[in-house]
Amino acid sequence: MKVVAFSGSARKDGNTALLLKTALAELEAAGVETELVQLAGKKIHGCIACYKCFEKKDGRCAVDDDCINECVEKMKEADGILLGSPTYFADISAQTKALIDRCGMVSRANGDLFKRKAGAGVVAVRRAGAMRVFDSINNFFLIGQMIVVGSSYWNIGIGREKEEVASDEEGMKTMRVLGENMAWVLERIRS
Ligand SMILES: Cc1cc2nc3c(=O)[nH]c(=O)nc-3n(C[C@H](O)[C@H](O)[C@H](O)COP(=O)(O)O)c2cc1C
Q1: Element (H, E) at 118
Q2: Is 87 in the pocket of ligand 1 (CB under 6 A)?
Q3: N or C: which end of the chain has fewer CB atoms below 10 A?
Q4: Is the CB of 15 under 6 A from ligand 1?
Q5: Which domain does 17 fall in, by range?
Q6: What is the largest CA-CA distance in the chain?
Q7: Residue 125 CA, ligand 1 centroid: distance in Å
Q8: How far, in Å, from the CA of 80 to the mean position of ligand 1?
Q9: Which residue among 126, 132, 161 has the greatest number of ligand 1 atoms within 8 angstroms of its CB, and so is best to mutate?
Q10: 37: which strand partners?
Q11: Where in this chain does the record put each NADPH-dependent FMN reductase-like domain (predicted)?
Q12: For the segment 27-44, what is each residue's pLDDT rounded down to a tens digit?
């Protein structure tokens, strides 16, 4: 079993990545293979609404000039997907939006490629706007017939500077419980 996590932060190794790594560590402890993909520094852009994915139905984005098809392949191979975003102006980052729109359209054009995989959103926030980010990510999972995994609180960690989120005790606990719950769900999806 494998879980792939995407950090949609523009900042490498920041709070979003640390939150995701914390959840992934629990999954690894439960014997699940994991991978973290950080979009920071990668070429990525939004959907151009060409709808060629619906014409071709080849499981790929027709605009093959950035990291999106690599991300689609990683999502296809995984049993679970974690999608993390920092809060930017009370919403998801542009990188996260590009990932959701492009991977989401490829999925829909091909009969819901990620159907019944487990999914969970993860949010880094300094102060306000995290719930909208969480909702936006969950919309990606829910329209794609995925199984959304919860935790002991909404999947949010609080911090501004890089890795400051480590001192948000409740946020870190929420990530550990999220990892445990995703491992539990994956075990049952498989059996
Ligand atoms: C462009 C931009 C917009 C931001 N907007 C918000 C916001 O609306 N609310 C908030 O609480 N924090 C906001 N922040 C702070 C980040 O959400 C916070 O620093 C977060 O921990 C960053 O995660 P990262 O380290 O993974 O990049 C913003 C940061 C940036 C760069």
Answers
A1: strand 118-125
A2: yes
A3: C
A4: yes
A5: 2-190
A6: 49
A7: 6
A8: 26
A9: 126
A10: 6
A11: 1-158
A12: 999 999 999 999 999 999
Cα angle 84, 100, 125; round to 5: 30
In this predicted structure, the answer to whether residue 67 has a pLDDT above a threshold of 90 is yes
Cβ of 132 below 6 Å from ligand 1: no
| pTM value surpassing 0.85 | yes
Closest alpha carbon to 122 in 98, 90, 158: 158
Q: Of all atoms in ligand 1, which is nearest to the CA of residue 159?
A: 21
Q: Is the pLDDT of residue 25 over 90?
A: yes
Is pLDDT of 109 > 90? yes
Both tokens of 89, joined, read 């102006």
Q: 51: which 2 tokens?
A: 């709808």
Say yes or no: CB of residue 93 within 6 Å of ligand 1. no
CATH number of the domain at 99, please: 3.40.50.360
> 90 C-alpha to center of ligand 1: Å?
8
pLDDT in tens, 115-131: 999 999 999 999 999 99
Quick: pLDDT tens for 148-168: 999 999 999 999 999 999 999
